[in-house]
Amino acid sequence: MAANTLVNRNHSQPCLVPDVLNQVLRHLLPATHATILSETPWDLFASSMVCRSWYIEARPLLDKSIQLGLFRTVIYNNRFDIDGMKRYIDILAESRRNELDDLDQIEQVTIDVSSLEYYRLDQKLNTLKELFHLRPRNLVELKIVIARPNQMYPMTLNEVNNVFHDLRPFSHPIKRLDLKGYRYTTDYTKMNSLLTLLSPQLESLRLTHCTISPGTNSALRMCSRMREVSLSDVHVTGETLAFVLPAWPDLRQFHYTHSNRQKLDHTIEALAISCPRLQSFALVNLGPMDNTAVTISNVCAVVTRCTELRSLRLVRISWVRISWVVGLVLTDASHKRYRRLENLDLEGCLNLDDRVTVGAGWSELRTLSLARCDRLDESFLEWAVGSCPKLEKMVIPGHLMEKTNMWIRWHGFHRHRGNTWKREGGQPVVMSICPSTQKRGICRVLRWFIRSKKK
């Protein structure tokens, strides 16, 4: 927290010698290290703005007594003390008048609506409005959580909608919005007006357990600067997201998680056509394997058309097989498609059970996750390690841990945590691990070792 000058000219001379002042300020230190906002030593904070000499003595003590990044996220929940927050906002206002940067540390505001008592909601929202009135220049993210309803003082849907409505005039600088609803069938109608207000600058959106209505789609189509979208257990009514995606030509990330049976073919087809600069694609099925929501052809279209794709995650997808995975690097290889793929996650794809019969690989692949692929054959790991020269991290399914434990170390991997293996440096040891040549490879290493000892 660097300071230039303290603007208050009436307090420019020190009142106490530094040693005495330091001892006085130490009495304001908290008994424990402050890890949440309510534990902040506000008296010490205020003392740091009395004059320049007080700032010089108090600031180091303050920095040591609070957790680094404590003010980066301001959380409004049932642990939030109104009086403490009011004092915090007053101190921030004084800090700005003194040309200090405390206010600029705020990057995110999180509002846990479900934990706020309805009878104190107006008071708490008023302090939130006061914070927004200060216009923290680095505040770019707003997170609203309605996931855990307060059992003693439950808020009605109308009261939750009013929270969205009250935030509208103060949310101009927000670029990232994260909304976590209670049930995906609940329609937060005022959410659409908030999205509309944020649309000129909104770049990142995360929706969990929310309803995407025709009104929501209209608001989303206005978000022309959208770069990242993550949707989890959303309920789409009316037209699909296929009508929204053409408005997001610069989309870089699209992640979709669902637990019930859905049909997403039109959406993913539109994604492949409308978002050619996509770099990260994830399709996560949390339900049974037969709930796979997209056919293989449309995912192939994403991989084929989005030539900047770096990360691909497919969880519990029924049609993912070895032949399809390896085919990603063989199809149209002359044009070097798929060669930029750096991260591949196939968690829980239980149909990865056939053997590898080809020898191509991804030249840029750095991480490969095969967690819970319980039918995977060892030959696929051999193919991946031998064919992907930049591979640095692997997550191996549990049933192959013992089989791969010895030979994978020859390629420079070490066990990091659980089923995760890492390799330093990125280049493998020059040695074949194919079963037909493994013995000859070991013999070559032994002959080299014997010759080196003779020298």
UniProtKB/TrEMBL annotation:
Q: Which GO terms describe its biological process?
A: SCF-dependent proteasomal ubiquitin-dependent protein catabolic process
Domain of life (superkingdom): Eukaryota
GO CC annotations? SCF ubiquitin ligase complex
Q: Can you name this protein?
A: F-box domain-containing protein
Q: Which species is the source of this protein?
A: Jimgerdemannia flammicorona
